[in-house]
Fold these 2 entries.
Entry 1:
Amino acid sequence: MNTTVSATVPRASGHITNQTREWIWGYICILPWLLGFLIFTAGPMVFSFYLSFFKADYLTASVFVGLQNYWTMFFDPIEFWMLALRNTAVYAFTSVPINVVLALLIAILLNQKVKGLALWRTIFYLPAVVQGVAVSLLWIWLFHPNYGPISGFLRSIGIQNPPLWIWSEEWAMPAMVIMSTWGVGGSMIIFLAGLQGVPQSLYDAASIDGAGNWGRFRFVTLPMMTPTLFFSVIMGLIGAWQMFSQSYIMTQGGPNNATLTAVLLIYRKAFEQFKLGYASALAWVLFVIILVFSLLVIRSSTAWVYYEGELAK
Amino acid sequence: MTTGLTAEQARVRAQAQAEGRKAHRRHVWMVVLGRILIYGLILVGSAVYIFPFLFMLSTSLKLLKQIYVWPPQMIPNPFTLDNYIKGWSVLPTTTFYKNTIFITTLNIVGTVLSSTLVAYGFARLRFPGRNVLFVVLLATMMLPGQVTMIPLYIGFAQLHWVGTFKPLIVPAFFANAFNVFLLRQFLMTIPRELDDAAKIDGCGYIRTLVSIILPLMLPAMGVVAIFTFTGSWNDFMGPLIYLRNTEQFTVALGLRYFQQQTDQHIGRLMAMAIVALLPQIVVFFFAQKQMVQGVTLTGIKG
């Protein structure tokens, strides 16, 4: 980030009017975001926190209940919140590492000076662009136990009873993870660009030092890629913790709540059961969880993320 | 050089050359094998990644009785557009498209205009608190939307905006953190001398933005427009929460409704899914280069 502070250092007296003008225009320029932040982010966040201590619905007046909402979600077993958190955590901590590794592998493959790069890149990137309801519907069909191609393929290689995928309690979440691997293209594109940005001179130097293919990957490619990997892991985790539409459309959280995610439960409490206070409390807990995990990754990053500028220190 | 060689020296050299050739051949072999492996993996991977599209297309062009056969025929015979024609008219699909185009267009306009202005402010103008505010902006990128969802709903309900397009459109005009970040990253690559030259010529900040910076920023603004298009076109939760009447549904919400209405007719469902995906695929093919640049700009320098 630009850390110039010259704006606060007054120069010749004649420039002060110019400087004030720059300040004013600066605030005018960022005004849309500043207002949006206050109206659509900061304000609602504060209000949501406030609401989480109330029993509130659309019809009756809100009643202050203290920490009861928080107590209920963690200690009342019929609320399913702990289950929803567990499901979401399983999804986040399996899909994100799998997708990051897969994206890196594909990027490395495509970085091998292959012919037709544009075509391959398009094929791997396209599924990542077209997410949404249509994709969820497509995957319901792909997972179909009798006529779906996935089970068909498994039968053709000798697996007599392939899983029932989203219709089985055991396999529904793995099916969601498998589906998520279809969308690795976004990370792959970032990794590919990152790989292409690794200077050849570093590889040459490593070769002179006697590094083989693995050595060059381990000691040049991987360290140079860590900032990009870091970005992908953070954004991937934040996205995965918010998984909603796949569960809502494909399984309605089932079977037997196997794919009930945190956001799906929040949605149900807020917009189907109209428990606004309780749902706000759930949302805040989810927010804190995402925040804690993001901070943990950021904290750990000093140990494994390498920034080029560090060498100069 | 060779004139001075004894028979022994010549023999040793010939042997060395032969071994060198062998090693070279071995090396060539390894390279060829490596290439075959690389292309093999890429081909298999591509086949896996493109297969769902082809299977969807194939299903959508089949009659119901052709769909439920195993093994499936990838190329339907006979070939029918029945699913598209019938599927389209089950629900007011044309209206869904009009709604989505309307919402998406306004989202693009609002996001591009507001984000560009904000990015210009953060990248080019100096004012107290700028860096702190920029960090706040970056932090909001990591904020999950659920934590603001319920109060926003209550607020929009107070304004009687629930059941209208407004909650899906108005926030777009207040800049989006990710896009501001992307545009600012791009702006940092435009030399500041251009601004200074404009200033010397007597241009104010807005004149400079409009006549000097904007023309250079068009590619990045295009990227923002494309990302906004994809996000808005695919948005499911927003319309799910705020839209009430079928006549107001977007394509994504309409598709979900369609699924509930005709659960068993997989051919029509796939046909309508393709219809919903098509605009995205078309945009992707025209704008792939810009999208790659945009993703790279935020992902690498971030």
Entry 2:
Amino acid sequence: MTTTLVTPSPRTRREPTPRVTAKAGAALHRPWWMPWLWCAPAIAAAVVFGVFPFLNTVLLSFTNARPLGGPAAFVGLENYTRLLGDASFWSATWHSVLYALVVVPLMVLLPLLLAVLVEKRIPFIGFFRSAFYTPVLASIIVVGFSWQWLLRDDGLINGVLLATGLTTEAVPFLSEATLVLFGAMAMTVWKGLGWYMVLYLAALGNVPKELHEAASVDGASAPRRFLHVTVPGVRPTMLLVGTLTAIGSLRVFTEVYALGGATGGPGGEARTLPFYIRDVGLDPVTGNAGFGAAASVALFLLTVGFTVLGQRISRGEGR
Amino acid sequence: MRAAFGLAGRYALLLAVLAITVGPLLWQLTTALKGPGEDVYGDNASWWPRDLTFDNFVKIAQEVPIWSYVTNSVIVATLAIASNLVFASFGGYMLSRPGWRGRRAVFLLLVVALMFPFESIMISLFLSVRDMGLVDTLAGAWLPGVVGAFNVLIMRAAFLAVPSEVEDAALMEGAGEWTRFRRIFLPSAKGAMTVIAINSFIAAWDDFLWPLIVLRSEENFTLTLGLARLSTSSFGVDDKLVMTGSMISVIPVVVLFFLAQRWFYRGVESGAVKM
């Protein structure tokens, strides 16, 4: 249910050194079924709430099952042909992809700059680090309320824009679908800053200090040192963050709900792919779970595509 | 001189970022403390309440069953923390122990289960929960998050880091499997367990999409659903109450995080968690 990429740390990859005497004794005292018993809840959850729902989604996508039950019939590829001909599906898919295109570069760069800013242990830095993390702790719904205040016609941002004369009329951030979508993107970035800052902080700790010192001695300016020492040092983390945020962008639902309301923006025009899936697949009255499942398969394939792309880039960099 | 300027510049930047990251949440807090006659938006709205009051925390309960929302969220979040801690420890422990058949297969199963984004399987999950008869129940809201595969992998990594000498010593003393698990492995994985507890709590407490799908009647609403309802009430929305509800949602998480952050960062920095 949470984020979906695992990078085994070097420690996990290494098997513990064989301890012949003690280990052999311990293994002998353990009946064959004992490990399965310990792992049973984890296995059950992975199957019942992971693997099975996925396989079932693929199966459902060839049926006309209803969300509240009743007879379901096999309909072949009908859901998919209907999906490909549905303009709202393409618009939702485009919104999700656009989301990734905008959010990924910002999420790769801004938290890194923030991590560099809080890296040095100066007085009160612990307070600043924790404070920058607080948006991570708030729910998106709560964050949405404060962003509505920022983006309203009589909100803070429009207040500043009008007062400085940059605009003569309030920008309709919350009533124009495209602007709702971009507002949601800004919210995602704002809320994710602290999370990825922590990730980058851990990575920055592994960049050799001597490199920075050597560059300083050579008279390299701070921006040059950032580009030529810090960035190469944390490049693997940047790629990881890029992949994670790309996949995360495809999952966006609540941000759009929080800013655009239950319809997903005016006329549903700001809907993302998960929003579309919920609307077409789970509506108690009009929902078609089979059709929604076909859209879910599309979402899964997009996710796989982004993951593979991320790995391609990582591998290319590794050479 | 230049160093002093650099330090001042750094603090100026830190304060600017502080305003951006915490400002909106602080605005919600001060709005929650505003009296009935005060403006929330527009030119007349003040940053600090002119008429500071805690009345909104009483008034909100007259508007919506806020404490019922809170209770439901507490129940779901507590179940999620407990089940994730217990089951991730069990599974992670055995997966970190060598010498049994099927270990690799279970590990692979967990990695595979991580590949499916929730949003791409939520329709099937809903049908499963429907077939279990758990639509519109708190059990239904909790169950899909019973134990995250990623948490099992976190615990596995934490247990793998336990030095073998400690375990050997316990074995020499004849400590059984359960004793070794309880007395040696669990205490050494406090950091990882804190990370799992906090992440499970936040995931359940802040979740919106799944409760929105599975919960129907207001008496079963969790806090995020209740807040969304409060903010779209057809009888006119009192934004001070919306912000009051927001604070009821945020403050417990912030307090919990600050209490546990020492262990949390230790868990993150120990390298067991690369997330």
